[in-house]
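Reopening closed ticket. The problem is back. First fold of the pair:
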Amino acid sequence: MMTTNLIEVVNFKLNTDTNLAQFHIANNNFQHYIDNQSGVLYRSLAKQADTQQYSSIIYFATVADAKKLCDTFFNSTICQLYTSLIAKESIKLDRFEVLSQTACQQS
């Protein structure tokens, strides 16, 4: 049986008082945390210039891997610091099962 990759897309905006340099440091720490979680294939952070909306996109090997990260997320001080800079009311999380993809390549 083939396992299905999962994509988690989190759209958000920063708090109005968030310092961008502080956010970039928190994001780098968060990226390092994500890179060390089993089952994470890839993560990217993107920003829409005209709306100041960010998208954090994580590819997981399996649904179970996404759940495992979710279970540990709120116990991590790195994750708590990262999310403290985000406007809570702006967060929208979507999960998608991958139906088709090209081979993942690390850059």
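Second fold of the pair, where the issue appears:
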Amino acid sequence: MTAKNLKGSIVALITPFHEDGSVNFEKLAQLVDFHLENGTDGLLILGTTGESSAMSHEEDDAVCEFVVKRVAGRVPVIAGSGSNCTQTMLEKSLSFEKLGADGLLLITPYYNKTNEEGMYNHFKTVADAVHIPCILYNVPGRTGCGISEDVVRRLSTHPNIMGIKEASGNLSYTAKIARYVNEDFALYSGNDDMVLPILSLGGSGVISVLANILPRQTHDMVMNYLNGDRQKALETQLGLLDVINGLFLEVNPIPVKEAMNQMGMDVGGYRQPLGPMGEAAKAKLTAALKAAGLV
């Protein structure tokens, strides 16, 4: 299985926890099976939604090894190996490659941020060292820095960089970097409320929080658009907008885990500093879930 040229819905998978805070591998197996049964085209583990920033390297390795074995090559497994320390990102990337990941998601260097050449080399260092495809991750709202159009242009020609997860929410920027999309460099929406606009600019799919609760619908929305049924895809995108907005009433993944627990999926709580959802936001989320017939 390869992550290259991957199209469709890639779930940004949550990490389920026991009450004591440890990883719930039994539940993780159930979630993997749930996605394999419901059309999810790829699994992104250990990303923002997976709370890897609050997990140890040993836990990250254990989750990667477990998911790779559970999936057994049926869909690509992409592991989030990003760090604001390039050397740490390199070490994690090499470890995940050894454990069998099919691809890597590499985030910008949050907090220290860096300059243009530093940004370019941050990604190039890993792409030069591994033998599995890498996806750039642009999410300035979380990291305090973004990947400039010129750095995207330069990195788009690297033979081991397969695409970018674009989560800036800025369609003007997205249109500019969409000029570098080709058969070797893909564009993925990082925002569930902007899937169709990004597909219209040549995108290949979405790396989705929504897919944690609606995997089949997220897959179908993307594939309907890519296969030419744009009206049906539009109806899905707009029809799910209240649920999507509910999943981002507080910082991700707090609402999606709350939604999953309300839906009976029993994925547990959060790693600090994340905590339970506030009552007012929870009420709005519950209302959106009820209106969609999910609870």
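Update: turned out to be a display glitch only; the data is intact. The CA atoms of residues 47 and 80 lie 5 Å apart. Residues 57-71 form the longest helix (15 residues). Please close again.
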